[in-house]
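User: Here's a chain of 633 residues. Predict its fold as tokens.
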Amino acid sequence: MSILNIGTRALLSNQLALQTAGNNVANVNTAGYSRQSVLLQAVDGSFSGAGYYGNGVEAATVLRSHDEFLTRQAALTSAVAASDAKRLEQLRQLEDLFPGGASGLGAAVSDMLNAYSDVVNAPTDLPSRSVVLSRADEMAARFRTAAGSLVSLQQGIRNESRVTAGNINSLANRIAQANAQITSTTGSGHDPNQLLDQRDQLIRELNALVQTSSIPAEDGTIGIFLAGSQPLVLGKIAAEVSIIGDEFGDPAKSKLAITRNGQPAVIDEASLGGGALAGLLRFQNLDLVDASNLLGRMALALGTKMNEQQRLGLDQTGAPGGDLFALGPATAGLPSTTNTGGASVQVAIQSTPASGATALAASDYELAFSGATTGTVKRMLDGQTVAFNTVPVLIDGLSLQITGSPSNGDRFLITPLRNAALAIDTSFSSPRNLAVASPVAASAGTTNQGTLALQSLLPRIADANLTQTVTLSFTSASTFDVTGTGTGNPVGVAFAPGQEINYNGWSLTLKGNPKAGDTYTVAANAFPNTSAGNAEAMLALRDLPMFDGAAVTDGYAGLMSSIGVRVQSAGFSAGISQSIARNVETDRASVAGVNLDEEAAKLLQFQQAYQASAKILQVSQTMFDSMLRSLSA
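Assistant: Prediction complete.
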């Protein structure tokens, strides 16, 4: 009977090998499937006086082609690639919100300021003034549109982050269920290949959303961890993740929290590594915030500076000008949830000793108290920290007013720029309210002998002595004495044609060459209806260094450049990470993937082996029949 047993075992073993090869072919396109192969082993031989004779073959188990290192590397690199790709996708959407050319915000700013040139030439022309107001309305509308688009993008990111967190929870629960099923099969002595493949595929899908690390346990389960140490799946139990606000309640930012046994833990996006969710959070909390601050700084700085200049001039009725732009209420600092004191923080543009409009940085700040009037201010853009020991706290053109009593360790998030572009609007609609005229006028002495002539006289800053009479008396072609309230009456002041002369908040520029005894006087403007001095000052704002040293008209170009550099950098990173991920996945697939040519060859191989095994049974049957006939004879 031994040859019959050998044939039977061979037939069954080759049948299993054929079945496994067929299963490989059937699952060639199944995601996560690892190629399987039957492990064949010889049956122990039987001893006889003539030696050990073999008893055939048997199928020991079914193995899956699997490389643990490549599987982990594939999951890791795919997580990094997913994060870079998602951030790049969002950055490109952000870039589309800031077009160049005539439809861009930069063109609107330039058009508004350039419109003052017609007013300079015809200060009494109401249509020219109306054009200025129309351009101001258009500029403010474009600021609001851009800011509204940023808010919509932010809301979309928040919703997508919440959906992604829900998908993470679903995958974590399925991994926990797979762990439970795998644990229940450990007593069989064979690996549940399909379950292991399914779990590996779930882990790969999870890593596309958030990068994880995994640690296998002795019972066959795998522990899944976020940020290196936060357990998401332990054995058969999965924790839950959610999207929450940060400790300051900043509506522009989101954090990932993981809750296990009722205890929540906040995970910073910087520690998440890769995954689409990490890319979303980095974009929302860093790129989108920076873009909002760049846009807000443009709106707040430009609006504040133009309001300051507008207030220095006189409108068509001779009254001091009012604000040209409404900029919304002052910003309040956001307190940390851990604060124990009763302080609050209000934020305004610094007004003394000079305006802070040209010194604003496109950044948020963190204010930390070590005492009632002491502590530090951290600029979030670059991490630079500055200590303070008096209030109000002055930094980067901002004035931080403290009310109430802070406790040691209290912290506040300062976001002075975020909503400035969303709130900007023109304050009046009548062109008569445009403060075109200068409050001061200059006149040459009636007995002057030189060639002195007025080049420009511009009101620059608010000063109590702005309209006080000031006389310049030239003692030579290169020096003059000054008399007038608020000037200090200096003598022997050096003079050069075309050089600005600044006193009492105005800036005077003379051309030509004086002679000793010549005078020039600056006094209150007696004829404001024919003056365009303040319109000239408005026009001069085009070249005022305001945005990190760049002129007003170059501010939008700087914003576009900043975003463009990020898009370019993100595109480079995404290209590299995706290339690495593809290469690692190719290496993994070369080990675990199904090759149809190989499987076709195996089918032929095992088919022939199966037919040969059947031949053994046929020979065995013939031999048995012959033996029976010989016995019956």
